[in-house]
Design a protein that fits this description.
single chain; alpha+beta; Cytochrome Bc1 Complex, Chain A, domain 1; 2 domains; 11 strands; 43% helix; globular
Length: 421
């Protein structure tokens, strides 16, 4: 049934338009996705994808910045955007009766933003504050440092927001040139999910999106190489924040589903090993979690936490022990519970039109096809107990770990000794 609701149209210039019709909803979510992110930026332009995302909301040839805000507020809709390492997304959620308004707004900002000099200078100040806020938030900064260390020497490790120094150098010519080079038809996908008709939606979008000049993607993608090591940033503070991990499976890797199960068992929920052992049994940390993120050709998997300095070594010992014993200690009950947890999360997310819209876009971006919820659940259910334990074994070498630490810790502190191997 879900497959019958999906349709795809490719315009003559290469722009792809995808829809999933859900007539029982009263809303619709629409997004324009472009393959543009920090991994594709030269060092001197690091942060430009994120800055450009901001600038597309600062006025077009038809509307100034206030008019954009007023028009979406007038229909009770939500308009937003985000930038990642590989993608930038502009999206809107409205009542289905207002899909035409949302479509026109999104295509206007995507195609017709005019980048006034005064708005560029003003928005620099906003982005500076965003960068400074991240740098003043240890739980965010430690993750940024982890990525920078794990992928050191490669644009994949560069911060999505860039540096204040880089942002300071951006001007209108650089912004316009970057958009021209990166926002190509071949890299652009339009997705809509909700109460809509595919053909009518294409008719709404086609005239605007066909104005995007023909051109193939000029991006060159080289698989990044992970680097192990430890980076300690001594700082006088009440807590120590740390993040450690290693390279994980990509979005296309056969081990990605086993990685989801591994991550769930280790630290993915309240019943996970880390939450129970670190927080519930010992009170060593308020926030303890594991994570798994997959990208087009690589991924990351690891653990993050923070604690008081006098508890740091005990916390590392517990995390190290739980991580290293995973291959030999996963139980069949934990394995089945993890499958049920992931299945429940996927089904609940599927109740949201914006979540389905995101899945629709990423299926096209990463696999070139529609991937139904049933397919994803079947893939998870198809993972065997042995495959999950084998995946855990493949990670079980502390010499491959990368770690970042912020807090009152000596630069010579030996973190890896707490992981037993």
């Amino acid at each position: 049934m879900p497959d019958q609701t999906f349709r795809k149209t490719v315009l003559d210039n290469g722009v792809r338009i995808l829809t999933e019709e859900l007539p029982y909803l009263k809303s619709a979510s629409i997004g324009i996705w472009v393959r543009s992110g920090s991994r594709f930026e030269p060092e001197s332009l690091n942060g430009m994808s994120h800055f450009l995302e901001h600038m597309l909301f600062k006025g077009t040839n038809k509307r100034d910045v206030l008019q954009l805000a007023k028009e979406i507020d007038a229909v009770g809709g939500a308009l937003n955007a985000y930038t990642s390492k590989e993608l930038t997304s502009f999206y809107c959620k409205v009542l289905s009766e207002n899909l035409g308004i949302a479509s026109e707004l999104l295509t206007d900002i995507y195609l017709n933003s005019c980048f006034p000099e005064e708005e560029i200078e003003r928005e620099k100040q906003v982005v500076y504050q965003e960068i400074y806020q991240m740098e003043d938030t240890p739980e965010d900064l430690v993750n940024e440092l982890f990525y920078s260390r794990l992928w050191s020497g490669d644009p994949f490790g560069s911060p999505i927001m860039g540096s204040a120094e880089n942002v300071r150098s951006f001007d209108r010519n650089k912004v316009v040139a970057f958009k021209t080079d990166n926002y190509t038809p071949a890299d652009t996908i339009v997705c809509a999910v909700g109460k809509l008709d595919h053909d009518r939606f294409v008719d709404m979008i086609r005239p605007e999106m066909e104005c995007l000049k023909n051109g193939s993607s000029a991006k060159v993608q080289v698989r990044p190489k992970a680097v192990s090591g430890v980076e300690i940033h001594p700082k006088s503070s009440e807590q120590i924040h740390f993040c450690f991990g290693t390279e994980g499976p990509s979005s296309k890797d056969k081990d990605r589903h086993a990685a989801y199960l591994y991550n769930t068992i280790l630290g993915g929920g309240m019943s996970s090993r880390l939450f129970q052992e670190v927080r519930e049994k010992r009170g060593l940390a308020y926030n303890i979690y594991s994570f798994f993120s997959s990208y087009s050709d690589t991924g990351t998997i690891g653990v993050g936490a923070c604690t008081e300095p006098n508890m740091f070594e005990e916390l590392l010992d517990v995390v190290g022990k739980e991580t290293m014993r995973m291959p030999d200690s996963i139980t069949s009950d934990e394995f089945q519970a993890a499958k049920n947890y992931i299945r429940g999360n996927l089904i609940l997310a599927n109740e949201s039109s914006d979540s389905r819209m995101s899945r629709l876009a990423k299926g096209e971006i990463y696999y070139g096809d529609y991937v139904s919820l049933d397919e994803i659940i079947d893939d998870i259910q198809g993972v065997t107990f042995e495959q999950t334990r084998d995946f855990a074994s493949s990670l079980n070498n502390s010499q491959n770990f990368t770690a970042s630490v912020i807090g009152p810790v000596s630069p010579s502190f030996d973190i890896k000794s707490h992981f037993g191997r």
